[in-house]
């Protein structure tokens, strides 16, 4: 679609992805590198990109701390690839959560022009529009591969960007964690009744479902979760999975590790770019940015898939005990989730538009995956050895 439409044309994205192979050759396969030096004072504003000769310098605010090298690292990959593919003429300095803006105000910072780019999750902002959850994920929704198919091939990204157009922002996929764990608990939660009064950090629609089940829900930024769990301000928390959870030290404050993370079967992270900043970019730099965002997403997913297994074994060796949510909890949570979607759709035509498209894709993919993927998974993972 044209730039004015507020979304990234799918064909442009795919064309950019093809360019990504060549770009990887230029940029190498290094891990995350330190952020770029501070930009010249004249380039610190976030309105139209400042050009000195052919150089453009942008600022990116992340919702994630630097210590989480998988999620925050994707923003660094974006920066590295953009600089490499532009021959050093397009630079993006990456700031971790809290350094420029609070972790949960990144979308606001892009909307207000404080920064050119944000790295965050749409479900952090469902107070602005509940449908933004479909940018990231919703309970009992799509896996990472299914989500990518819907966004990039099923028209989902265009629908998501119609939502962000109201905020003067465009959204590009920035990676996926894959299915997440169900979180860390200080006590057993075997039944629905055991959830009542539990104080848990859980954002997005998952938090809304938990609230309906009697949980006292809190939305706490990643870097602030451990102190809350350690001091008893909360009784449970979810984050991502073994690699990040180990880094944040949750196993030191709680030893019961639940699965699955039914509220996040395939959460997509996003890069947000202000419309004014995007309009100021030369066409080739737009192409570079889209390609680099795709590469950052591939890096995030593959790093999690590589690092989670080893971290999981280390947690088990340290005495962490795994638990599974009961069928009673899972069934009730699913019923509540889909009732919430139906209620929102009945009240808001914009929500209904994106929900109907998402649900059609989810059902079709569930039928196919239930035939092929599930059969393999049952055989390959349902037995020892």
The largest pleated sheet is described as: 6 strands, mixed
Low-confidence spans: 1-53
Shape: globular
Number of helices: 14
* CATH hierarchy, class of the domain at 3-177 and 266-306: Alpha Beta
- Structural class by sheet pairing and helices: alpha/beta
Approximately what portion of the residues adopt beta-strand conformation?
A: 5-15%
Q: Using DSSP, what is the number of strands?
A: 12
Gap between N and C termini, in Å? 50 Å
CATH topology of the domain at 3-177 and 266-306: D-Maltodextrin-Binding Protein, domain 2
Order of helices and strands: HEEHEHEHHHEEEHEHEHEEHHEHHH
- Label the CATH architecture of the domain at 3-177 and 266-306: 3-Layer(aba) Sandwich
**Measured on Cα atoms, how large is the radius of gyration?**
21 Å
**Average pLDDT across residues?**
88
Binned, the helix content reads: 40-55%
CATH superfamily placement of the domain at 3-177 and 266-306 = Bacterial extracellular solute-binding protein, family 7
General description of the model:
The chain has 385 residues and is α/β, with parallel strands linked by helices. It has a domain at 3-177 and 266-306: D-Maltodextrin-Binding Protein, domain 2, CATH 3.40.190. It has 14 helices and 12 strands. It has helices spanning 10-27, 71-85, 106-112, 133-136, 144-153, 156-164, 204-212, 225-231, 242-248, 275-279, 283-317, 327-347, 349-371, 373-381; strands at residues 51-52, 55-62, 90-95, 117-120, 169-176, 183-185, 199-201, 216-218, 236-237, 256-259, 268-274, 321-324. Strands 1, 2, 3, 4, 5 and 11 form a 6-stranded mixed sheet that branches. Strands 8-7-9-6-10-12 form a 6-stranded mixed sheet, with helices on one face. Strand 1 (51-52) and strand 2 form a beta hairpin. The longest helix is centred in the last third of the chain and has 35 residues, at 283-317. The protein is globular, with a radius of gyration of 21 Å. Residues 1-53 have low confidence and may be disordered.
